[in-house]
Design brief:
This protein has 228 residues and is of the alpha+beta class. The chain has a single domain, classed as 4-Layer Sandwich (Glutamine Phosphoribosylpyrophosphate, subunit 1, domain 1). The protein is built from 5 helices and 12 strands. A 6-stranded antiparallel sheet has the order 2-3-1-9-8-10. A 6-stranded antiparallel sheet has the order 4-5-6-7-11-12, covered by helices on one side. A hairpin with a 4-residue loop joins strand 6 and strand 7. Helix 2 crosses helix 3. The longest helix is centred in the middle third of the chain and has 12 residues. The chain is globular. The two termini are 25 Å apart. The relative contact order is 0.16.
């Protein structure tokens, strides 16, 4: 089990917010006791806690890959059961790999196939990929929603994490209970309406869905576009 956090702002420079990122990431220490790393840039902050299982030397996250003069950065939690098959397909397409971890497979599969690759993944996963050239954030969750991924949008910021407790460490997030969410928890818990949580303005990426936070598609402000 691993965990990740992040936040993005497509209008303002947030590269000096590393202290916030560190505080958020360290709430997930139990999910990833072996390693902690960060990526900080002008419009994106990513943090990861790792439980090392496969390929300790080549599975560090956040992980980056450069292709056609563009840099992609991923944070990921899960296990991809068909990683070997997808890796072999990508090798046939001319891609090379530094190791055998499924993180690298997911990242390079996304670079090659785009969002359609999620339909080909067989596994349990949630991940975030930052496209530096397009200034675009891609979030995805596995088909049955085994791996969690929560987010909130405040002003021009999207804040996301594997657990709600990491999101509420961001100073912009005000924790308030949602009456509908509480009613569901008491009435049918632990089940709840997909995409919701018990807190106001904090949502989850639905199972079998992905989301795009992009300035390219919406030039005036970042808007989250959620698709299945």
């Amino acid at each position: 089990m691993c965990g990740f956090v992040g936040f993005a702002n497509l209008k303002h420079n947030i590269s000096n917010k590393r202290d916030i990122l560190v505080d958020m990431t360290r709430t997930l220490s139990k999910r990833g006791p072996d390693e902690e790393n960060f990526y900080c840039a002008e419009h994106i902050q990513l943090g990861h806690r790792r439980l090392t299982i496969i390929d300790p030397e080549n599975g560090h996250q956040p992980m980056q890959a450069t292709y056609h003069n563009n840099t992609y950065t991923i944070v990921y939690n899960g296990q991809l059961y068909n990683a070997k098959e997808i890796r072999e397909d990508l090798i046939q397409e001319g891609y090379t790999f530094n190791g055998y971890c499924d993180t690298e497979v997911i990242l390079k599969a996304f670079i090659h196939y785009g969002s359609d690759i999620v339909k080909r993944f067989n596994g349990i996963f949630s991940f975030a990929i930052w496209n530096e050239k397009d200034q675009e954030l891609f979030l995805a969750r596995d088909h049955f929603g085994i791996k969690p991924l929560y987010y909130c949008i405040i002003d021009d910021n999207i804040i996301f994490a594997s657990e709600v407790k990491a999101i509420i460490k961001h100073p912009l997030v005000e924790l308030k209970l949602d009456s509908t969410g509480i009613s569901e928890l008491l009435g049918i818990g632990p089940a709840h309406t997909p995409g919701t949580s018990v807190f106001k303005n904090i949502y989850e990426i639905k199972p079998a869905h992905f989301a795009v936070f992009s300035k390219k598609r919406f030039p005036y402000r970042g808007i989250l576009e959620v698709r299945k």
